[in-house]
Amino acid sequence: MAISLIGLSPRGDAGVRFFSNSWEWHALVEYFLGHESFLLNEKINLHFLSSGTELSEVECWKFLDVFAKNFDYGSELVELPQELSDYITLTSNFLSNLPDMECQSCLGSGHQRKGIISPLYFEPRVACRECDGSGKSRPYICNYELSRLTSLNFLNFLKFCGGCVVE
Ligand SMILES: [Zn+2]
User: Fold this and answer.
1) What is the pLDDT of residues 18-34, one digit of tens each?
2) What is the pTM of this model?
3) Do the Cβ atoms of 158 and 1 come closer than 8 Å?
4) How far is the CA of 154 from the centre of ligand 1 (A)?
């Protein structure tokens, strides 16, 4: 599930809206939960934020403080906090070092399948759309790679949204 947060009282463009695909949001939440030193809000399950859930400005700043200690409220962040930057590098290296796996779509054949039981292939055989015919694909978990830009946009959104609501 993608996440879309709308600023309740934005100060500047950075606080108007934050959007992330579900993969990156999951990685951000995992980072947050690994560093959480307080309970943000008993009602909020960060993995499954539901539509209409609101975070006050103070809650957003508490949230932000986990990512960026001693941040300056007045100006936009232009660089990621070192610890978050290191986390992104660490996960990126971990994911990029994973070996390719047998493609789950074509079961390694490289050909697009049309049925459940082999060898029901399309005739004439066409290359698998998932792996372009190689029979190999990146592990599913590689979708969880977190970009620096999304992370920075998230931190600046928290800083300038004036509280937010899940769309
Ligand atoms: Zn394939």
Assistant:
1) 999 988 988 888 887 77
2) 0.80
3) no
4) 34
Tell me if 147 sits within 8 A of 20, measured CB to CB.
no
DSSP state of 116: S
Long-range pairs, 37-42, Cβ under 8 A, ≥24: 37/66, 38/62
> For the residues 38-47, what does the mean pLDDT come to?
52
CA–centroid distance, 102 to ligand 1, in Å, is 8
Query: According to the model, what pLDDT value does residue 34 have?
Result: 74
CA of 129 to the centre of ligand 1 (A): 6
State the Cα–Cα distance between residues 127 and 133, nearest whole angstrom: 4
Using an 8 Å Cβ cutoff, are 8 and 162 in contact?
A: yes
Q: What is the pLDDT of residue 44?
A: 54
Altogether, the residues listed in the chain come to a count of 167
Distance CA 165, CA 56 (A): 9
